[in-house]
Amino acid sequence: MLRLRNIKKNSGIISASYEPEDSGKIGMIKIDIDTGEVVEKELSDYDKDFPWHFSHAVKALKDLAKEDSMPDEKLVMWY
Q1: Does pTM surpass 0.90?
Q2: Greatest CA separation found in the chain?
Q3: Per-residue pLDDT of the chain (79 residues; tens, 9 = 90+)
Q4: Where are the domains of the chain?
């Protein structure tokens, strides 16, 4: 589980901070909407050794980029 916060979409970029497992260890992602490439990132300390949550955050942001309206926050869960 992770939380995306401060989700912003403008000038061809979608960005958010992410927090894995309510850990308090925040990371950040910026993705180019046209190419789907990560243009800037700061891994959460929770993800330093194995960026599992980061990859889920990237996928969730890419999915959100297709939406017309943008939530400020989103809970992302998987199993």
Answers
A1: yes
A2: 35
A3: 999 999 999 999 999 999 999 999 999 999 999 999 999 999 999 998 999 999 999 999 999 999 989 999 999 999 8
A4: 2-70
